[in-house]
Design a protein that fits this description.
By secondary structure, this protein is of the alpha+beta class. Helices cover 43% and strands 17% of the residues. Helix 5 packs antiparallel against helix 6 and helix 5 packs parallel to helix 7.
Length: 171
């Protein structure tokens, strides 16, 4: 906020607010999306102003460890797989200020739910998806009043409709 860098909190940082008490939704890390053009300035701010240490860089994010050992992942792409990135419009165009800060934005509800399901599928394929993801999905779908046609279209374009259907049944 101080550096006027637009960002979107992702995953647990957002879903935590849907639980009856925030402590009921613990996270192993904090995920934040910034615009690709702001990646370097956001990285410099985290390293120089916040005292974090660089852990690793990849093609879609930069990981840091805070002084109290919290893992922070600064994403500059929402999707690591280009196949999925092509399925939606620019998330910054459809995001809006969350009302608490001029820099902090919120993903469009359908894109947030789609991103959550995609993230669940990635974990499912790569080793397992825990119950917390299913609880999160249930809470997202209950809280956000989703446009089911828009979400259905996103899921169909990505080949995730069947997975999403089974995930919902497990919920």
């Amino acid at each position: 906020d101080e550096e006027k860098i637009a960002y979107i909190p992702l995953k647990g940082a957002v879903v935590r607010g849907l639980y009856p008490e925030p402590w009921m939704r613990v996270s192993g890390d904090i995920d934040i999306l910034v615009k690709e053009k702001d990646r370097q300035s956001a990285t410099n701010t985290i390293l120089n102003s916040c005292g974090y240490e660089l852990k690793k860089e990849s093609t879609y994010d930069v990981s840091f460890i805070s002084p109290n050992k919290t893992l922070v992942e600064l994403h500059h792409k929402l999707f690591s797989d280009k196949k999925f990135a092509k399925k939606i419009t620019d998330v910054w165009v459809s995001s809006k200020s969350d009302g608490n800060s001029e820099c902090r934005h919120k993903l469009n509800n359908e894109i947030f739910c789609y991103y959550h399901i995609l993230h669940m599928a990635k974990h499912f394929v790569n080793g397992g998806c825990g119950i917390r993801s299913f609880i999160d999905l249930r809470l997202i779908e209950q809280a956000y009043g989703l446009d089911s046609d828009t979400l259905k279209e996103l899921l169909e374009k990505s080949g995730l409709s069947v997975f999403a259907g089974y995930a919902r049944r497990l919920c």
